[in-house]
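In the laboratory, one determines a bound structure by crystallizing the protein with its ligand and collecting diffraction data. In a computational setting the workflow is compressed into a single prediction: the sequence and the ligand go in, and a structural description comes out. We illustrate the idea with AN7.
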Amino acid sequence: MAFTGVIARYRPLLDVPSHIYPVTLLEGDTPLIPVPRLAEELGGHFDLYVKFEGMNPTGSFKDRGMTVAISEAVGRGVQAVICASTGNTAASAAAYAARAGLRAIVIIPEGKVAAGKLAGAVAYGAEVIQIQGSFDDALSLVVSISEHHPIALVNSLNPYRLEGQKTAAFEIVDTLGKAPDWLCLPVGNAGNITSYWMGFQQYHGIKHSGLPQILGVQAQGSAPLVLGHPVEHPETVATAIRIGRPARGEQAMMASEQSHGRIIAVSDDEILVMQRRLARNGIWVEPASAAGLAGLAHEVKAGQLDLKGLQVVAVCTGHGMKDPDIISQSMPHPKIIPPDYSILEKVIEGDK
Ligand code: AN7
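The predicted complex, in structure-token form:
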């Protein structure tokens, strides 16, 4: 069967109105990559897989939800969509709106969006507006605009976003034959953790596929769900999850409690170390996407998590190519030499 995107693949399981008009870029069907060497580095004796969501059409998991949100908006005759974004939602909304011929307006925090995401949103033809404020400021503004204008909101407050994003849980179960024992993932606005829990529960109801324990991970400088209160000025190198007032925070807490999991915070340093470790296993993700695994490593090291004999899936939400600046800041620059054989030979020998 040719693959046709998440709506066509899972339509009977999605709670969507009959008026939806599918707009797809053939998102989903992302690889579940075994990473045994990384599991060994983290203490070994368990099966570890990376669900690499960076392989979606615009390079992040947002495409799963955006195909459904845009399809619903188009089917209802909407002409324009709007979102606030730390970057990935902007790029995804821009791409799917372009595909559907809709106007896309994206509001982002000035200076805090990775280069590849901003470039994508511009390339797809969105109207990009930078605000002198945070993502949380941007989100409350777009919610008000969507209430006063015929412009559809495509942030994850839009329930169709969650319907699409839960397909990632279905895919994991379809590949493994059952739910993993643990699922770890980064948490920002908390739409994704909510979606995964919905998806695993729904599949378990139909297929008795089991339920994972969920480990949600925030960055220490942006950890409202760990602190138990909003963060006014969130900061982290993982700009994608630089969010102080998560729209789906309560549902995220429920997902963590009901799954007998937890939500924790890790430092920027732990995030960057894990980003490098993943890259050394051939998987380059953006900093936020390394947070889930950084949290897993943190818990294992602290003796809080015994994974022996278990199956673990780490959701890596976005591709590293979107945030090249982080790498150029944290890694040595490539050497520059004249085009000379003996100099090249010396450099290679010296590097051994
Ligand atoms: C790579 O793009 O909020 O907890 O505006 O880009 O569902 O918010 C991005 C979030 C994790 C967190 N990893 O997911 C946005 C935005 C990456 C992300 C998250 C985001 P949620």
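The longest strand covers residues 103-109. Keep in mind that any predicted model is a hypothesis to be tested, not a measurement.
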